Structures are given as structure tokens and as C-alpha cells.
Amino acid sequence: MHYYQFHIGDYKSHTHHLSLIEDLAYRRLLDHYYLHELAIKQRDIARQIGMKDHEQEVLTVLDEFFISTEDGYIHPRADLEIAKFREFAEAGKRGAAKRWSKGGDREAISPPNPTPIATINHKPITKNQINSTAVQMPEDVSSEVWHSFVKHRKTKKAPITDLVMAAIRKEAITAGWTVEQAIHEIVVRNWSTFKSDWVDKKVSGSQFLGGI
């Protein structure tokens, strides 16, 4: 994965005792771990993260923040984030396949090339076109909550796109909420979107650092 959440306060509280080199080593180890999504083999890891002249500092950090197993060094908190990312990605693939496939075991087909909204009938874009939504109601959201959400977004002159829904779903998963709960919270609290940092999570806040 090429992205992970980074909570500065939590990171600082767990790493304030590190030297500058050790801190750099930890950040690079985390980046390596998230990028490859594999256990870290101790052999030659310092060279792989560009710190071959500071191998001792790298190994010190590895022993302190990672757990040694038969397969290599693992990071349970990072593994949880990776699992969430994979779950989110698979859910997105299933949703896309269902929207564009014709059923059965056939491969998903590509959608037809859409006509750019700015060139429809050669007319300028209207506010109604901007605020309308072609996004289908998610299967895990009730029609009542969805219609309230659509109305809410229109009052804020904010479109509902696949990108918007993907972001809300990702934040809901991070917070341990369902998509319906997240959308309901947006409407009730008059928010423009949903952020996991704004609500209580099932996992304690100190654990919500992608790198500790």
C-alpha cells in the first residue's frame, strides 16, 4: 500500500526517546513495511532502506518496535492497517464488478465512455448538474438514510461521487463504523463529510497510529 495514516501526537509520545538517526530508521522501516506488506528480514534491511552506514541503529529500532517471528519482523499495528486497506480495496472491486458486469461468471465490462458534462447539448454546466448524483445507493445503506444524505448534500451544494463515497467508507472502516452509521452521523451533525478522528472509535485512540 502507498498510503497510511500518521498521527503525529501518538508517534511523538512513543518515539521521543529516539535519536535523530533512530527516528529516521523507524520512519523508513515503516515505509518499507507498508510498501511491501511483508515481514522484514533482518539480513540487509539497513541497505534496503538506504541506511547501511547505520545498521546498528536500524537493528535497535527493529528490535524495539517490531516483533521477531519465523517469517521475519512484523508490526501488528501496521498489519491491522494493511488488513483494513485490503478489505476496503476488495469491497471496491466487488462493487465495481457488480455495477458493470452483466451477471453470471462473466468478466466485468468497462463502462461506456461518458459524455463530458460540459459538452452535453453544448450547454453550460448548471448547478443542478453539479449537485446531482449518479452514484447508486450502497447495498449496506437503507433507502431512508440514503435519501436524507442526498438531500443533505444538495443543500450544501456538494456533489455525491464515487470518490466521495470511497472516502467516507474508508473513514467509516477506520472508525469501526458501518457506512450507514457514518452517513447518518453526517446528516445529524450537519457535516460535509465523515472523519474517523471526529468520532469515538472501537479501538483506543492511542492505537490509531499507523506506525507504533
Main pleated-sheet profile: 2 strands, antiparallel
What level of helicity do the residues show? 40-55%
Our measurement of the CA-to-CA distance between the termini, rounded to an integer number of angstroms, reads 17 Å
Mean pLDDT: 77
Task: Give me the Rg, rounded.
Answer: 22 Å
Computed structural class: mainly alpha
Count of all domains: 2
Strand order of the largest sheet: 1-2
Question: Would you give an account of this structure?
Answer:
This protein is an all-alpha fold and 212 residues long. The protein has two domains: 113 residues, no CATH class; 73 residues, no CATH class. It is 50% helix and 3% strand. It has nine helices and two strands, in the order H-H-H-H-E-E-H-H-H-H-H. It is elongated and about 60 Å long. It starts with 7 loop residues before the first helix and ends in a 24-residue tail after the last helix. The C terminus is likely disordered.
Please summarize what this structure is.
50% of the residues lie in helices and 3% in strands.
Brief descriptors of the model:
single chain, 212 residues, mainly alpha, 2 domains, two-stranded antiparallel sheet, 2 strands, 50% helix, elongated
Strand and helix layout:
Elements: H1 8-15, H2 20-36, H3 45-48, H4 55-65, E1 67-69, E2 72-74, H5 76-100, H6 127-131, H7 143-155, H8 162-175, H9 179-188
Antiparallel strand pairs: 1-2
